[in-house]
Amino acid sequence: MNIIVASIFVQDQDKALKFYSEKLGFVKKEDVPAGEYRWITLVSPGDQAGTELLLEPSAHPAAKEYQKKIFAEGIPATMFGVADVHEEYKQLMEKGVTFTMEPTQMGEMTIAVFDDTCGNLIQIIEK
């Protein structure tokens, strides 16, 4: 069994697609109609056959509530691995990304957390 798609709830699919592709550098893989919304996935530029990130609409009341509550508690919705948290932090800051936690050493890992402007906190981690 393999993880092929992981989803993240977003308030606005177009805004999320722009943020995740332009600010974070992910590559759009799928963008097809799916009823009222779209099936939009992105992949890492260096692994375009790898796990896809689905930009899932948070239209359902349970999804909205979940997203609001974990954001309010400061809990990241997901995490992305990076080679150098300090360098990634610097590059994302230059692109206007807002961080809620600067790079912080946690044992053998360094993490930072940013706001994706779509209702989520995202953690980046260097292991």
TrEMBL record:
<feature type="domain" description="VOC">
    <location>
        <begin position="1"/>
        <end position="127"/>
    </location>
</feature>
<dbReference type="Pfam" id="PF00903">
    <property type="entry name" value="Glyoxalase"/>
</dbReference>
<dbReference type="InterPro" id="IPR029068">
    <property type="entry name" value="Glyas_Bleomycin-R_OHBP_Dase"/>
</dbReference>
<protein>
    <submittedName>
        <fullName>VOC family protein</fullName>
    </submittedName>
</protein>
<dbReference type="InterPro" id="IPR004360">
    <property type="entry name" value="Glyas_Fos-R_dOase_dom"/>
</dbReference>
<dbReference type="InterPro" id="IPR037523">
    <property type="entry name" value="VOC_core"/>
</dbReference>
